[in-house]
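2024-03-11 09:14:02 INFO worker-7 job=invfold-0412 stage=load source=structure_tokens
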């Protein structure tokens, strides 16, 4: 049983066109920068925003299909939602908040309250059942919101930045707690986040969105090892260059040549270079590097025991060197410098 969704919608300047499938027991993270369309996808899945074109099916139930005139309301869909700000009702107790979804679906008051109490016990908050949201910590509010979403026995659980409202000190603990609770849910789970730590800790697979479209998908290891967009490359700290590969030479769009030891088919390709693999020299380097480019220092940024040097030139790069190397080179913005990379340090793969 799966979630199958083809979602196309125009929302202001954002044209969203996304396809995704999630299997039973799977946690998929929608990942990307602000404004990429992640939360809009969740709103469409939840029934808060109708799609313009496409089709959304949860198991065998069609919940949105404009062509067939099908549009189920949120309460008619087998879903649970944990919103970024949790959206607990301020005038209701924790118990009443958890029971709300059940009551909205027609469950009798007594039965709903009993079931809500069981869920509060599962998330370790039975002694807070009579407390209102103002008396709860951020972590406690998050657990109440999760219990409310799961109490209706949904097939699809949607989580929109569920840890964003927490302070940095409590996020690690709550991330572990959330993972534990999600492990006991056998339905399909879609998590929206822009935090790679959340994606790594919680998701089985990630889908990267940029400007309303999917640019990459796979496990976190796959995505970070072979980034396919500047956003992902910058996130994992890798220089990503696009061009045309012929043999062992990739020619960039600006005509610069990058020699790689990778064996790949000729055609459009990416070249990935780790910042630590780049050496900097005041003169043209001697020795074995197959790639040498004369560049200009654009910026120098100290990060703990490392220094990141941004370079402009035929191949724009970010190099990472030690403070001792920076002192020896005496580099400042505007200075000329040679960058060198061994062919064995360049990874190429098809676009």
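2024-03-11 09:14:09 INFO worker-7 stage=emit residues=351
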């Amino acid at each position: 049983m799966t979630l199958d969704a083809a979602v196309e919608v125009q929302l202001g300047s954002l044209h969203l066109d996304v396809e995704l499938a999630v299997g039973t027991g799977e946690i998929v993270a929608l990942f990307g920068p602000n404004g990429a369309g992640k939360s809009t996808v969740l709103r469409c899945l939840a029934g808060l925003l109708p799609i313009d074109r496409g089709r959304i099916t949860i198991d065998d139930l069609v919940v949105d299909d404009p062509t067939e005139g099908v549009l189920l309301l949120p309460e008619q869909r087998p879903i649970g939602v944990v919103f970024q700000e949790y959206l607990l009702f301020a005038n209701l107790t924790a118990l009443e908040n958890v029971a709300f979804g059940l009551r909205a679906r027609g469950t009798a008051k007594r039965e709903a309250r009993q079931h809500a109490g069981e869920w509060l016990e599962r998330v370790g908050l039975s002694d807070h059942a009579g407390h209102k949201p103002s008396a709860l910590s951020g972590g406690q509010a998050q657990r109440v919101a999760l219990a409310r979403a799961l109490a209706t026995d949904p097939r699809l659980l949607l989580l929109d930045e569920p840890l964003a409202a927490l302070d940095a000190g409590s996020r690690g603990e709550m991330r572990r707690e959330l993972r534990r609770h999600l492990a006991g849910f056998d339905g399909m789970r879609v998590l929206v986040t822009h935090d790679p730590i959340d994606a790594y800790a919680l998701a089985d697979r990630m889908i990267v969105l940029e400007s309303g479209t999917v640019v990459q998908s796979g496990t976190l290891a796959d995505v970070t090892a072979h980034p396919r967009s500047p956003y992902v490359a910058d996130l994992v700290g890798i220089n990503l260059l696009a061009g045309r590969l012929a043999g062992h030479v990739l020619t960039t769009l600006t005509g610069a040549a990058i020699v790689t030891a990778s064996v790949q088919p000729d055609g459009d390709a990416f070249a990935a270079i780790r910042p630590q693999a780049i050496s900097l020299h005041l003169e043209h380097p001697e020795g074995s590097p197959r790639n040498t480019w004369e560049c200009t220092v654009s910026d120098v940024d100290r990060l703990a025991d490392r220094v990141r040097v941004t370079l402009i030139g035929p191949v724009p790069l970010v190099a990472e060197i030690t403070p001792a190397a920076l002192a020896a080179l005496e580099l400042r913005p505007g200075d000329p410098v040679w960058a060198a990379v061994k062919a064995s340090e360049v990874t190429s793969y098809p676009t």
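2024-03-11 09:14:09 INFO worker-7 stage=report msg="The CA atoms of residues 178 and 199 lie 12 Å apart."
2024-03-11 09:14:10 INFO worker-7 job finished
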